[in-house]
Amino acid sequence: KFIIFIFYYKAYQYAAKNYDKARVSFEKLLALAEEPDPEICLRLALIEINQNQYEKAYDLLMYTVQHMEIALAWTCLGVCCMRMGDFTEAEASFSQANEMDKWDATTWGYCGVLCGKMNRRVEGEQAVIWATKLKLRDYRLIQELLELFDESAQGEETRSCLNELRNIQKEECHDPLESDLLIENNQEESQDQKIEEEEEDI
Asked: How deeply is 17 buried, as exposed, middle or buried, from its count of CB atoms within 10 A (0-12, 13-18, 19+)?
């Protein structure tokens, strides 16, 4: 009965976005179980990703994908790999997620980010087009796509999609998979890179 109580209570905390308390509840539930519940591992991984704790989320997701067939887990695993710099594993994870659900806008959005980081612009633009057509509504992810492709997009359809994404308001979007702090960190890194390039030119 106590385990059942924790299950429903932690679900309430998660829905209420009380992530710190939900994390504690999930961890307690995993500790009490004889075998880890992959669904709980996934929910805990989502909290870790939202807090930009990618290494912790990675371990949970590796267990999840071995015990559950769910596209979201593969997308999240791809995000973790990408943020940790393993682009090859990230691409394999996103491909697996797309095979399981090719209509997920968030997965296509992250495919676009990955291609942009790998300087595969043509594939990246195609991913942006698909993400837009499938009504991407992760505001943080939209901002990252605009940062990567807004000035370099070649295709007319891509530019049209970017304009559509630019006009999406935050209020129209669901909660982002990752924290908004990631945008600030990316912007700081981009600014530092520009300063370094300017100093080299001097």
From this structure: exposed
Residue whose entry in the numeric block shows the structure tokens 């520009």:
194
DSSP assignment of 139-201 equals HHHHHHHHHHHTTT--SHHHHHHHHHHHT--GGGSB--SS-THHHHHHHHHHHHHHHHHHHHH
Nearest 5°: CA angle at 123, between 97 and 165? 80
Residue in the block written with tokens 């940790």? 84
Q: What 8-state DSSP symbol labels residue 34?
A: S
What's the rounded Cα separation, in Å, for the pair 96 and 56? 21
pTM value > 0.90:
no
First to last CA, the chain: 69
Whether the CB-CB separation of 75 and 110 falls below 8 Å is answered with yes
Q: Provide the 3-class DSSP secondary structure of residue 16.
A: coil
Tens digit of each residue's pLDDT (9 = 90 or more) over 74-86: 999 999 999 999 9
Angle between helices 139-149 and 181-201 (to 10 degrees): 20
